[in-house]
Structures are given as structure tokens and as C-alpha cells.
Write a structure and sequence with these properties.
- The chain is mainly alpha-helical.
- It has a domain of about 35 residues.
- The protein contains three helices and no strands.
- Helix 1 crosses helix 2.
- The radius of gyration is 16 Å and the shape is globular.
- The protein starts with 12 loop residues before the first helix and ends with a helix.
Length: about 60
């Protein structure tokens, strides 16, 4: 796993409450939800390289 960079994010209370509820609904922490949202947005915008599949993932073999 690659190293993670930490930073401060300031958002209003209503936005945080909505984010907290969404994260709970998805069984994630708020931090995990933000990471997922950012990853999805980058992927959809074509700004993130896709991970290459391993030979096990290609064949459907999950050990």
C-alpha cells in the first residue's frame, strides 16, 4: 500500500453531517468516504490511471 498524505479540510456543518450519514450508510468512516469519492471523481474524469489486473484477477481466481 502506498503512503498517504494528510491535509486539513474545512467544510460547513451541514455538509459534514450529510457526508457523515452517507459514510455510515456505506459502512465507511468519513475519511474513507472522502477517499472513495475523490477516487471515483478522478477515475470518471480520466485523471487517474487504472490499476493493472494481476493474472489471478483476470482468471477470476480469488485465493
Amino acid at each position: 500500500m502506498s503512503a498517504k498524505k494528510s491535509f486539513v479540510l474545512r467544510i460547513d456543518e451541514a455538509t459534514y453531517a450529510a457526508l457523515e450519514k452517507w459514510a455510515a450508510d456505506e459502512f465507511r468512516s468519513v475519511n474513507g468516504q472522502l477517499e472513495w469519492m475523490i477516487h471515483q471523481a478522478l477515475k470518471e474524469a480520466g485523471r487517474m490511471k487504472e490499476k493493472k489486473e494481476t493474472s489471478n484477477e483476470k482468471s477470476g481466481d480469488e485465493r
